[in-house]
Amino acid sequence: MQKLVDGIHEFQDSYFTSHKLLFERLAQGQQPLALFITCSDSRIDPSLLTQTQPGELFIMRNAGNIVPPYGAVLGGEAATIEFAVSVLKVQDIIVCGHSHCGAMNGLLHPEAVDELPAVRAWLTHAEATSRIMKENYKHITEEAPRLTATVEENVLVQLENLRTHPSVAAKLARGELKLHGWVYKFETGQVFAYDAEKGQYLPVEETVARSSSVSAELPSI
Questions:
Q1: Helices within 96-142 (DSSP H only)
Q2: Phi, psi (deg, nearest 5) at residue 134
Q3: Average pLDDT for the chain
Q4: pLDDT at position 218, please?
């Protein structure tokens, strides 16, 4: 605990002082660039990963970066998504999974969460991920590659769950919102983004560069 208190003092004495104008501006409101949905895992820091400042990311975190389908749980996740899209009017939503995810390991090994009823119930919102792994990935038997595949598939499942939220569906239909699936490999610092056209995860910088190139080639209206 003392480390946290010492950190607050350091923040107030150094970072806050040198960024006082930023915090004064933030007191007037927020206009985040994106809604960033990721895992509660302590090894992930969205702002550090994206090198963003306070006010630039609206962050939602939970075990397994799960998005319950609309109506399944009208709780914090649904409220956060609705507020980000309808009030803050973010133009991008990112669902970011990560390597060595404990929640996804629990999905692969239900016995590991037998004594954790709340976790077990929460993971039912990723049941589609579990079914995909059981039926479509029987050929992957090694533990590490199987967990990686689970993490990747879960991101795609949660993107589909996002589409069930009315605020998201409406903005997507008007072309005012984009959804992105990322996987962060924290031991190497790499971030991979799902490329729907190629049907695979590619280094995020490649997908952004290719998307910009395609947009530049489109005729203006």
A1: 102-108, 117-122, 127-136
A2: -65, -40
A3: 93
A4: 39
101 tagged catalytic: yes
pLDDT at residue 211 greater than cutoff 80? no
Instruction: Judge whether 96 counts as a catalytic residue.
Output: no
pLDDT band at 213 (very low <50, low <70, confident <90, very high): very low
Active-site pick, 6, 25, 43, 45: 43
Please identify which of the residues 41, 96, 165, 180 carries the catalytic annotation.
Answer: 41
pLDDT value of residue 221: 33
Catalytic entry in 39, 96, 125, 165: 39
pTM listed for this prediction: 0.91
Roughly what angle, to the nearest 10 degrees, separates helices 127-136 and 143-162? 130
Catalytic, 114? Answer no
Q: Is 25 marked active-site?
A: no
Q: Both tokens of residue 157?
A: 């499942």
Distance CA 131, CA 124 (A): 11
Averaged pLDDT, 122-128: 96
Nearest to 157 by CA among 189, 186, 133: 133
What is the rounded distance in angstroms from the CA atom of residue 190 to the CA atom of residue 79? 31
Per the annotation, the verdict on 98 as an active-site residue is yes
